[in-house]
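To assess whether the prediction recovers the assembly geometry, we first specified each molecular entity separately, as shown.
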Amino acid sequence: MVITKKAEGEMLTLHVQGRLDTTTAPQLEAELKASVPGVSKLVLDFAELEYISSAGLRVLLSAQKVMNRQGAMVVRGVNEDIMDVFELTGFADILTIER
Amino acid sequence: MLATPGAMLYNIIVQADSNDINGKVGMNMKEKLKSYFRKLHDKLTADEVFHETEVQGNRLGALILFSSGIILIIILLLTAFGVFLLPWESVASPAIPAVIASAALVVVCRAVKNDAWWLKHLLILGLIIVYANLDSILTHKTALLMIIPVVFSSRYYSKKLTVVTSVVSALAFLASAAWGATNGMINLNIVTFPEGTQMIATGGFLGDAIKNAGAGDPGFGQMLTRNTLLFDYLPRFLMFTLTAIISCNIAGRGRELVTTQHEKDIKTARIESELTLATRIQADMLPNIFPAFPGRTEFDVFATMDPAKEVSGDFYDFFLIDDDHLCLVIADVSGKGVPAALFMMAAKIILANNAMSGKRPAQILTDTNATICSNNREEMFVTVWLGILEISTGKLTAANAGHEYPVVRQPNGRYELLKDKHGFVIGGMDGIKYTEYELYLERGAKLFLYTDGVTEATDASGALYGTERMLAALNAAADAAPKEALRAVRQDIDRFVQDAPQFDDITMLCLALKEDSPAGKTLHAETRQITPEHVRQFVEAILTQHNTARSCAAKIYVAVDEIIANILQYSGAKTLDVSCLANTESITISFSDDGSPYNPLEREDPDVTLTAEERSIGGLGIFMVKNIMDDVDYAYRDGRNVLTIKKNTK
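The predicted structure of the complete assembly is given in tokenized form:
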């Protein structure tokens, strides 16, 4: 997994490329933990994310909880497979998804 | 068709006619000739059935003539050496021509190898002439010699021939009697002498006696002729007539018998050829081309059926229901022969139809029983063992309707009877419900199915082969492939029964799940050394090889990730095996760990409608697996959790 970070003031965009699973989720979790303080708008660009497993969902959930307190979080560019997972797990209702 | 001269001429005429398109007159002549030869040809070749009889008759004729010749030579020799008190001329004059004629006819018979349409007529005529000649000279010594041609003619089973022979013989007999009564030998027993008559020897012939007597008493010669006809020939002629009548009857009856037998032979031949055909049709009904699934490397199956009679009541069957399900059947119909074979065909088709419609084994047997019971007036039944193997996982679901126990050998184990629960035989009673059971065949496992023809094979002393010997034979060839395993059992049975006849059909089927199949791969690992990424890479290699669609692969990776993460985190397992099987239609992966027994499928699904604040992530993984896979299955066996997932790729 490759994470590309772009910060513009209080807005942070994380471009996540590859797979978000048990192996890579801790990496994203660490990145968020380090970068999120002070961010009021978090954009997760998943345009080049292949798939996401529950380990990834767990990271998204905790990020969403954090951002609920300090601003907003947007998930962008999800492919159909990931969207299926979001819908299946009810995450489609929790997350703000921009396609 | 016989190559009689008539037939040949007929053919020549036909040919000439087809080449000749000239003149109406010529046509008429040829038409007539053609029709004449056709009639002649038909007459001579109509009795094709009797051809062999005729050749045999001719051979007998030659033998009679040969024997007559030998007897006559002996008589001639005995006469020449004075043993027979007969004048040499009286014997030699009829006997020598008879010997020559007999020899000539025997030579003719040899020349045409007893096979000529005219030979029988020639033989009969020859016999009549030879015997009439002997009869006319040896007036009272020849007994019923004249009847021999008549009795002989009856050997040709033609009443007509015997009647004609009788008439010709009778005429020849009368002629010889007419000649013999005046010129043959004297039979002094039939002469009435005045008291005190003195005999003066003058020679043995009637003619001489009549001449001599006539010199003194003309009435004496007439008396001798009359008495010879009356006492020597008339009783013989009466006996001749009776024997001729009997011979005609025998010939007629013989003909009937030969004709009837011939018709029966034709019928028998037809039944035999139909039976041969039935055997072939039945054999073709069963899958009998091996390897049966050349494209499938995950398993190997082999089966044989040796009927005790031409057709069998046993059958085996195996076929793919879909890409991942192999149906195996072994069955034994009550009774033997054609009725059992017919019933077997019906049972086989009904079972296969039910299986192909996707039913489970118990349901297949239940429905098959219902269909067969609905119309089974002959009260036949069939014992059936039917199993459906899920090739990717080795899961075998089976039901048994009164059939022998199957034999299972897990890898590196021994062949053992699987004492499954028996239902009632199919066709035995309406409304029976069958139950099924499951077992897992591991990679490298073998399944052996058989009929009672195997266990109940008997040796000359009546001892049964039995399951113990069968298991021993299988275990002696434990590592053999199915084909060799069946051959080993068969050879062992043959050694046991030796020369005792085979009473029952011997049918066997053996399935082997292959240990290392190129299509399916297994990853063996210790949990402390493995990561979800390792497993993902192992699966990825197989999916890439099979060009699995990206979206489908993504779902599989998610599932693998969830399952491996669960096992590593919670199960406490030390070892983990992951088997991945890919084929054109689906990907099947099974995860086997030695952790504490835990069925993840029993876990309650999480509430996916809660808000972010209320949500916990627990249980979401397996929930996703259940939903994004097409089939998820859990079993705990041999101390291992086995979770199998399947994703259809089409």
